[in-house]
Amino acid sequence: MLPHAADDISRDGKSLILAYDHGLEHGPVDFEPNPATADPERLFELATHDAVTALAVQKGVAEAYYPDYEDDVNLLLKLNGTSNLWMGEPDSPVNCSAEYAAGLGADAVGFTLYGGSNHEVEMAEEFRKAQETAREHGMGVVMWSYPRGQGVKNDTSPDTISYAARLGLELGADLVKVKYPGSAEAMGEAVRMAGPTDVVMSGGTMRDDVAFLRTVSDAIDAGARGLAVGRNVFQRDHPERILDALEAVVFEEADPEAALATAERAD
Ligand code: FBP
C-alpha cells in the first residue's frame, strides 16, 4: 500500500491541526480574549504540545518563526487566505505557491475552497495547481472545504457538508476540513462521502469546554479523523489544558468529561 501523503501531519492516522491563520482571516479581534496569542511565538510553543500534529499558518508567519521550530513542529502552510476587510462574493487569493511552501520546509499545504461561490471555478483551478505541485514535492494536501456564497443556502446543512467532504475526495485532498453538520449521523455521512480522504472537523467559535469536547468526541465516533482548531484552543485562558483533553478524546477516544477532569487535575 502507498504511504498516506498526510502521514507527516498525522499520528496513528489521526490529526490535530492547530489553525493560526486568524490574524489574516478575521484580524486582531480574534486575539482579544487571550492577548498573548497575538504573538505567533506563543502558538509555535503551543504547537510543540504532544497533541498537535501540525500548525497551520500563512507564509509570512512561517518565514519569521518556523526556522526556530522546524525540529519540533510540523508545518502545514496555508497557500491562500483572505482578510475580513472587504465585502463581496467569497474568494481567497493565492498568497504562496506550493513550490515556495516546499522551500520553507512545509510537510503539507492547505487550501480553502469556497464551493458555491461565484469564484469556485477559479479557486478549483488554483487548487489543481497546488495539489499537483504538492504531490511532486511529497507534501500532504489539506482542503478547507467551506461552501458559501450565492450558490449555497445553508453552509452547515448535512447535504452541504457531505458535498463539501466529497469535493475533497474528487479534487485530490488527503484531508478535508469541514464544519460540523449538527449531528453525528450527518458527520458519518460526510465521512462516507469522502471515502479514503480523511475528514477533520473545524473548531468554530469558542464554546464551553464540555460542549466543545462532546462535539469533537461525536465527530470522532462518526469516523472523523481529527480536527483543525484555532479559537477553541488559543482563546482559552489555559490552552494547554484543552490540548491535554483533546489529545485524550481524539487519540484515545476518551470520554470528554473524564478527559477534561484529568486535564484539570494535571494542570
Ligand atoms: P477555528 O477553529 O477558530 O474555527 O479555525 C479554523 C478555521 O478554518 C481557520 O483556519 C480560519 O481562520 C477560520 O476557521 C475561518 O473561519 P470562517 O471562515 O468561518 O470565518
TrEMBL record:
Record EC number: 4.1.2.13
Key words, A-Z: Lyase
GO molecular function, one term: fructose-bisphosphate aldolase activity
CDD domains: DhnA
Gene3D superfamilies named in the record: Aldolase class I
Pfam family of the protein (one): DeoC
InterPro entries listed in its UniProt record: Aldolase_TIM, DeoC/FbaB/LacD_aldolase, DeoC/FbaB_aldolase, FbaB-like
PANTHER family xref list: 3-HYDROXY-5-PHOSPHONOOXYPENTANE-2,4-DIONE THIOLASE, FRUCTOSE-BISPHOSPHATE ALDOLASE CLASS 1
Protein name: fructose-bisphosphate aldolase
Organism encoding this protein: Halorubrum trapanicum
Origin organism lineage: Archaea, Methanobacteriati, Methanobacteriota, Stenosarchaea group, Halobacteria
